[in-house]
């Protein structure tokens, strides 16, 4: 398994708005269908958010998650990873409630408070399907993505300790690695650790190859052989940085949460397209993809029989 690559597919997220792509899954049915197709295409982990099915607005309601989580579980053996990143208008308590109720094998955990700028997208669109979309993007100028030490400790306790959920630790900057090391030193986080290096978000570390090399070297120093890493390259950086990650011995993340395109100027018509594209690249690098059960073994997960959906 050492040479096998875990593909994570982030299906919808809370960054892109419906007007940006007609292919972005919004309703529970669309999220379920695209997640299942991505798993069938080779994604071992499915990173999931929910949206209001009438407006596409990011939604934390566990009842919405429960409209697609059981369907995905019944149709695939993929690892289900529930986001705690939520959306711009949500409190931390709202962001974790779906994962608290569902007790998934994995949940995301963001490792630091930061600016999170979505407003540049206003320059690329002039017509909007919903009134909330331009306001949502504009409000990101004055938005602080809150992930304090207290917030992190709440997630570690209420999701990890209470439910046996393990984490996709999302690292938007080098300092986030030192925050995680603090919790490792305190014994609140134990290996195997799964890091998601996030590059290219306005407010976080830039999408420069040198930055990824530095983050990897820092993680090596802090965590030794107790971690595995994956890379999220935002927007046009998705495939180049996934390729770089795989060539460095890491894992990959694709999906419409992170990038709406399959190639320059052409919208991806579904998440599975991006999974197939990265699979072709991995094959060209003579790398095999990990099955969901191989991913479970690598990441020390509790198994699909021990969730609450």
Automatic annotation (TrEMBL):
Its cofactor is Zn(2+). Keywords: Metal-binding, Transferase, Zinc. Pfam families: BKACE (PF05853). GO terms for molecular function: 3-keto-5-aminohexanoate cleavage activity; metal ion binding. The keyword Chloroplast does not apply. The keyword Zinc applies. PANTHER family: 3-KETO-5-AMINOHEXANOATE CLEAVAGE ENZYME, 3-KETO-5-AMINOHEXANOATE CLEAVAGE ENZYME-RELATED. This is 3-keto-5-aminohexanoate cleavage protein. It comes from Thalassospira mesophila.
